[in-house]
Amino acid sequence: MPLYFFFWTPDREDKLNQHGIDIEDIVQNPARIEKSRSSERWIAFGYAADGGWTACIYELDGDQTTIFPITAYRPGE
After folding, report:
1. Domain residue spans of the chain
2. How many whole angstroms separate alpha carbon 44 and alpha carbon 54?
3. What is the pLDDT of residues 13-26, one digit of tens each?
4. 23 burial class (0-12, 13-18, 19+ CB within 10 angstroms)?
5. What is the value of pTM for the model shown?
6. Which DSSP string corresponds to 9-75?
């Protein structure tokens, strides 16, 4: 498993905490990863702690060690 540094800005941290989604766990242990066709950002899919299927959108820096969380959502909801 790769080791990533997560760069949290206050607004992103607040937004994701409101939804109760642990984006770090899903991004580091994804069931599936793909690249968005529209934004070119990475999307990690996995199950949240409550069992819900979750998509986590993030950007990866050039050296591929730093994650910039963007948002997360439950597909189909």
Report:
1. 5-73
2. 8
3. 888 888 778 899 99
4. buried
5. 0.87
6. -HHHHHHHHHHT--HHHHHHS-SEEEE-TTT--EEEEEE-TTS-EEEEEEEE-TTS-EEEEEEEE-T
